[in-house]
Recover the amino acids of this structure.
């Protein structure tokens, strides 16, 4: 069985069992001493419990200031911040911060403390006993994909950037806060690690359903992670606050158009899952059955290829008819390079897989890697441009000799 080329990824969206808190910013203003204009000027934002809201906007527009006012690392000059119905501007700031996880670039770990000590800081401050802290550290390291045995006693300098970032996320989650604030959390890691950390955050979020407010410079990251995106201009003025779909397809004005950039049509590929597109089933044949039967069915259906499945319906390869005609029974050879994707993959990942494999189609698998159908490059194109006329040839036709 060939390895799927893309891992299962999780659709962004508020988790069904949200444990997060709602946050309302009401007429919030921050005026730094000596500055002519307020850094944040009378901002109103309603953040729903369990959603990921991403703040984006040009440098200096007030994103970080807005974020840090939520846990009062920066005190608002005026206005209210209401967390689950309670005005936090009147609450003890230290107590407030223990109920809000905070993640910054490169994890912001204490260099002289081990991983376990870093993750256990807040539970320690809350007076948890040693055994409970140890158990929690173990659980969290596991959650963020670090083996507790290996990493518990390491120091931050003994970790890669991505691992430090994972520890930072574990630390922020330690006391199970309803709210997580993240300031450029993945800004300091390479693109591949970044993508992996984003996927993990979505997995964790599906499990935990926190309210997450995140600042990023990377609009693609905002599209991937955000249930909603707030596009801010100077003074943290909200130019548009909506779902990624609406922002990409209905930008509020030219500022948003400029900000989103020319690739908006392509970015919508990141929003669409393979499971949103109608898959073609084609002709399938199980190993050990007569080849002539599969060839006849494929001819009748107008297919040039047969998808060969093992006894448990998992795809092994696709086979050209003219080759299959020379065989008696369907053989069990596995094409290690068969382009395969999970239904949760995005259309962007589907195109990527086809390009990498130099094939015009990709096999899609569902639960337990069973065959779900195939997707062609033409189907992806017609999905993007629904009015572009009749569909082109829809056989997966490997262009580089593919099937064997
Ligand atoms: N401590 C401070 N004292 C004075 N002015 C500040 C202070 N911190 C931020 N500012 C100013 O407030 C404005 C908003 O800053 P903020 O850091 O919130 O912006 P940002 O959108 O997060 O920027 P970036 O994307 O560059 O990180 C900027 O003009 C900045 O120069």
């Amino acid at each position: 069985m060939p390895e799927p080329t893309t891992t299962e990824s999780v659709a962004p969206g508020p988790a069904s069992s949200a444990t997060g808190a709602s946050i309302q910013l009401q007429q919030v203003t921050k005026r730094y001493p000596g500055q002519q204009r307020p850094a944040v000027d009378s901002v109103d934002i309603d953040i729903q419990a369990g959603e990921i809201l991403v703040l984006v906007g040009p440098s200096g527009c007030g994103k970080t200031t807005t974020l840090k006012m939520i846990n009062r690392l920066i005190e608002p000059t005026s206005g209210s911040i209401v967390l689950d119905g309670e005005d936090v501007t009147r609450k003890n700031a230290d107590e407030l911060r223990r109920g809000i996880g905070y993640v910054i670039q490169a994890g912001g770990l204490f260099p002289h403390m081990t991983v376990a000590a870093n993750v256990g800081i807040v539970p320690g401050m809350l007076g948890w006993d040693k055994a409970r802290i140890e158990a929690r550290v173990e659980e969290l390291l596991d959650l963020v994909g670090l083996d507790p045995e290996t990493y518990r006693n390491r120091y931050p300098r003994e970790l890669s950037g991505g691992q430090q970032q994972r520890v930072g996320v574990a630390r922020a989650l330690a006391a199970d806060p309803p709210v997580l604030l993240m300031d450029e959390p993945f800004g300091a890691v390479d693109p591949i690690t970044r993508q992996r950390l984003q996927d993990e955050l979505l997995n964790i979020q599906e499990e935990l359903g926190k309210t997450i407010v995140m600042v990023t410079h990377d609009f693609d990251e905002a599209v991937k992670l955000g249930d909603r995106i707030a596009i801010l201009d100077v003074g943290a003025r909200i130019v548009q606050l909506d779902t990624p779909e609406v922002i990409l397809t209905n930008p509020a004005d030219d500022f948003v158009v400029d900000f989103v950039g020319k690739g908006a049509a392509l970015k919508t590929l990141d929003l669409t899952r393979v499971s949103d597109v109608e898959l073609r089933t084609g002709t399938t044949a199980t190993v050990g059955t007569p080849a002539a039967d599969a060839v006849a069915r494929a001819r009748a259906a107008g297919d040039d290829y047969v998808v060969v499945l093992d006894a448990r319906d998992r795809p092994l390869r696709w086979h050209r008819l003219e080759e299959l005609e020379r065989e008696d029974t369907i053989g069990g050879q596995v094409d290690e390079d068969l382009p395969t994707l999970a239904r949760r993959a995005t259309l962007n990942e589907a195109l990527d897989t086809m390009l990498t494999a130099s094939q015009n189609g990709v096999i899609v698998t569902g639960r337990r890697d069973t065959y779900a159908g195939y997707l062609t490059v033409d189907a992806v194109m017609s999905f993007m441009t629904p009015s572009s006329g009749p569909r082109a040839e829809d056989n997966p036709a490997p262009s580089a000799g593919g099937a064997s």
Observations:
- The longest helix spans residues 191-208.
- Residues 10 and 237 are 31 Å apart (CA to CA).
- The chain has 16 helices and 16 strands.
- The pocket of adenosine-5'-triphosphate is lined by residues 32, 35, 39, 57, 59-65 (CB under 6 Å).
